[in-house]
Structure formats: C-alpha cells, structure tokens
Design brief:
mainly alpha
Length: about 140
Amino acid sequence: MNSFFLLFIGVPTLEIFLMIKIGGEIGALSTLSLIFLTAIIGLYFAKLEGIKTIRSGVMNLYQNKIPVYEMISGASIAIAALFLIIPGFITDAIGFLLLIPLTRNILIGFFIKRKTTSKNQEDINTLDGEIIEDKNKKDEL
C-alpha cells in the first residue's frame, strides 16, 4: 500500500516540477503545446501499433494458435495510450517506451520470465501423492 501511495503522490509531484522547470526554460505556451503535441503523436502511434497487434492476433487465430503475446502487447499499448493522455513528460516517456516494439518486447519478456520463475518456485514446494486404502481395515467394516 505504501508503494502505491508513493506513486500516487510522487509521480504527479515530479510531473508538476518538471513542467515548471521546462516552462521556465521554453515558456508556458510552448510547454502546453509540447504536452498536447506528444499526446496527439503518441495516440496516433498507439493506434498504428494497436492495428498491427490486432492483425497479428487474427493471423495467429487463423493458424489455430493462441495469441497470448498479442493480448499482452495490446494491453501494454492500451496502458501506453493512457500514459500519453495524462499530461506530463515522465508519463509520456513511459508511454512512448511502451509503444516501441523493442522495449515492449523486453518488458513483456521480463514480466513473463519473472512470473514463470515464481511459479516454478511454487512447484518445488508441492508434493504429489496417492491415497491407498488398507484392505484389512476395509474388511473390518
């Protein structure tokens, strides 16, 4: 809960600080224009990447394959679009990183690898067994 609270307070604080610093350097109107420009360009590229992902997913469905990567990629593109809509430079940078296929593949690979290693740890602690009834106790009943 503390990390969520820290993100909830920390990210907007950093965004406001960065906007004030950049606004002091290039001017308020230029800063606002830059924020709107990054949102418009980012959403355009999010649309293009989303269409590519949908096409790839449909091709996998035609080949009777489950489009797992495409589903995860589509979710990350949606998150990128959300970050690009939120005004600020840090969230825009994260959004653009999620839109670039190379960095998106690295992040997806990292989370899938992390998830499978934690799942394998659970399998180590699991013991499979079988219940065998004792015939002598069954005859006594």
